[in-house]
Amino acid sequence: MTSSSWTGMLPVEDTQLAVTDTGGPGIPVVYLNGQFATQGYWKRILADLGTEFRHITFDERARGKSGRSADYSFEAAVRDVDAVLAARGVERAVVVGWSYGAVVAAHWAARNPERTLGAVMVDGAFPHDWLDDAMEVRIRKLFKRLNLVMPLLRPTGLTPRMSAAQQAESNIELGKLSREAELGPVLDGITVQTRYVVASGTSLGSRGDEQEQIRAGLDLVTARNANIKVSAKVESNHGALLKKDFRSISAAIREVAHVGE
Questions:
Q1: CA angle, 183 then 175 then 166, to 5°
Q2: pTM score > 0.90 for this model?
């Protein structure tokens, strides 16, 4: 499959998504961002992989250059993957997700095995019951504090055009979806080659070794599903690995892409 490069706004439901497709005859890869991140975070990986791949990136609803929506749910995020691939005429792709995007990638790969050439989860999609009532309170307090600086950062594109309450609810929904009883069966159902690149240390809002406890939930997954393996455990923390350890992520993408050909 060959397509010309394209950058533009794609109408989807009640909004528009900012999409970039490098085109070319390479293996299609669709990249799914962190919860409030933008497609620009992938630039080092795209440059490292080069023209062997056709890179499709996009900003989720109210992130980056994409428009606001009445629906910021997880299911909307999964639907947007379908909408972007359909609009770009891509039938099969490698799906790569970081953080929140890794959970989206896991669901999409489990639901669409015939369309998935392989999957790479970048420090996300760890089944662990980290959300309880106290954590919900912490999340809401965190985003309420962040709301003080968000209006100043929005013109730079560094924060989403969502309210603090909307961001908190999105994070709480992620916690519910990440529970062992919810995410475990999704990962067990993945039948394509899947690789994890796992960070070290903390992430925004975590304390002490909380993040490492969450990552430990992957051990049971890899023991149950032979399709899922850890490709690399890197030194960078959750927020830095796309910048500092992009070569490890590129290597995982190459591995699953060529297995899935």
A1: 130
A2: yes
